[in-house]
Design goal:
This protein has a single domain, classed as HIT family, subunit A (2-Layer Sandwich), CATH 3.30.428.10. It has 129 residues and is of the alpha+beta class. The longest helix has 21 residues. 34% of the residues are buried. Helix content is 31%, strand content 19%. The radius of gyration is 14 Å and the shape is globular. A five-stranded antiparallel beta sheet has the order 1-2-3-5-4.
């Protein structure tokens, strides 16, 4: 069965896209820790990030780096935090989170619910950076 992320890749489920190429996709987390929280995924469904072939993993990280640099240009933060948990969805993904301190990456905090217009504005700002 396809993961929710594979359904996003195929267009079955919409997303707030911030970057895409032939192999990778970056989009806003719909339940973000902070405004601008992005998920970066390989389009090829692989459950565990360290099962991705070395050359693909390298390209995945370089794509992620480009997205993080775009985020840093338009989001007010000290850094873009990076984490891989990999338990919540059986599809490898990287969380990019605008942070001003380590507490901004606490996944036990309540998630935000931002209006559609705000999500679109953030996604467009990152995409156009």
């Amino acid at each position: 069965m396809a993961s929710i992320f594979s359904k996003i890749v195929s267009g079955e489920i919409p997303c707030y896209k911030v970057a895409e190429d032939d192999n990778y996709l970056a989009f806003l987390d719909i339940n973000p820790l902070v405004k601008g929280h992005v998920l970066v995924i390989p389009k090829k469904e692989t459950d565990y990030i360290f099962d991705i072939e070395d050359n693909e993993l390298s390209a995945f990280m370089l794509f992620t780096k480009l997205v993080a640099k775009k985020m840093k240009k338009v989001l007010p933060c000290n850094r873009i935090g990076v984490t891989v948990i990999g338990l919540e969805v059986p599809h490898a993904h990287i969380h990019l989170i605008p942070i001003n301190g380590v507490a901004d990456m606490n996944f036990e905090r309540p998630k935000l619910s931002l209006p559609k217009e705000e999500m679109e504005q953030v996604a467009n700002a990152i995409a156009n950076a």
